[in-house]
């Protein structure tokens, strides 16, 4: 995935792989350290800046108001999105019939009487079926010129390598964790589907009937992987929204406590004291700001992952949006 994303490993880990709680804590720690550094670097002593006016009261009032408003808004929007899953019995029946039909279609292409029920096993079965169809294509590609043979072999080798990596990532992965979606994102089915169709259209006369059948069977599996990935991605987003709502609810409590404490109990007339050479008043204010903004740090950490996944899956089917994949298809 990193090679196709054309970003550093660290950035990709931060956007997708890292635990969202660690990302939120990192944002809060950055805020805390930034305020402390700014207070120390200011030419006026930090304690004098903090206690010289009613800036603490003004800041605390703003933090309380923004926390209440922001948390309420986020929870309301989350519930609005999740409420779309509710509907009349007729709508639910149509969804059930569509899901059953899709599972039956997948059972046919993976040559199993019943398709797996777990998302990781379901996607792994599709990927394994893709690999089997690719093996069949390589066996049927006989009597061709060297250039076309090498091209098909390179295509098949790429499918094998990618499929093995994705199946290893899906093995034992549990839905709700990001491992399932991360492995699904790593399977660049759009490029595979495009290449299969291009081989079929450009070399129909040279390919045997068996090879054409294998290409069509391979394309059929890839066409099912796209909707499956999008379905599980949608379910994962809903799962994340539930986790986000729960997390914001819990972190809003210490956030309100910190800002309310600053509003009611922070004493601007207290004598200056120091800890490790830093004024305690500066550390207290930095801590209050960091803890008060914890709900927004949690929100930002989840949004970073959701928008990154959304950007990487904007299209469905044989459409290549990223420059890295486009260059690969034109080789």
Automatic annotation (TrEMBL):
The keyword Oxidoreductase does not apply. The chain crosses the membrane at residues 21-42, 62-82, 248-266, 278-304. Keywords: Membrane, Transmembrane, Transmembrane helix. The keyword Membrane applies. It comes from the Archaea. This is DUF4239 domain-containing protein.
